[in-house]
Amino acid sequence: MDGMDRIDAAILRALVADGRLSNLALATRVGLSPSACLRRVQALEARGAISGYRARLDPALIGRAFVVYVTVGLSEHTKAAQDGFERAMRRAPEVTECHNVAGAFEYILRVEVADLPAYKTFHTETLGTVPHVRSITSHMVMGTSKDERA
Q1: Per residue of the chain (150 residues), what is the pLDDT tens digit?
Q2: How far apart are the first and last CA of the chain?
């Protein structure tokens, strides 16, 4: 990123690791005074390098431990078909990510639900009712060895 130095990079790394760091703890970690650190964080936020802060939730405790990556092919490659599909996915609370991709299919979804019966309901009642959906391939997550999403 233009104008970013090693201290800005250290601030970003520290906040990715723990977004709840106090300004004092962050300043100590990156070797700045608290006021200089706060100015840097505010500048990074203003430039869009920091776009927000999130809580990481335990999927099992909130009833979303069954994760499925779904590839979806559309029968039409029109803007209207894509817009309609994307609108439907924004309305589906089970869909936590929706990516338009190049390749053998048009979309990859991350779907989080309680269990297999809940996924079947989503598959049938949500995906199965969206116009222009030609193909659906489900990839159930068996385990996760790395996840750096915030």
Answers
A1: 567 899 999 999 999 999 999 999 999 999 999 999 999 999 999 999 999 998 888 889 999 999 999 999 999 999 999 999 999 999 999 999 999 999 999 999 999 999 999 999 999 999 999 999 999 999 999 999 998 876
A2: 20
Q: How many residues does the chain have?
A: 150
Of the candidates 76, 81, 137, which has an alpha carbon nearest to the alpha carbon of residue 111? Answer: 137
Quick check: 93 and 125 in contact, CB under 8 A?
A: no
Q: What tokens appear for 55 in the block? A: 């809580």
- Dump the DSSP string for 114-130: SSHHHHHHHHHHTGGGS
What is residue 108's three-state secondary structure?
Answer: strand
What is the rounded distance in angstroms from the CA atom of residue 73 to the CA atom of residue 108?
A: 9
Residue whose C-alpha is closest to residue 69's, from 99, 91, 92: 99
Q: DSSP secondary-structure letter at 40?
A: H
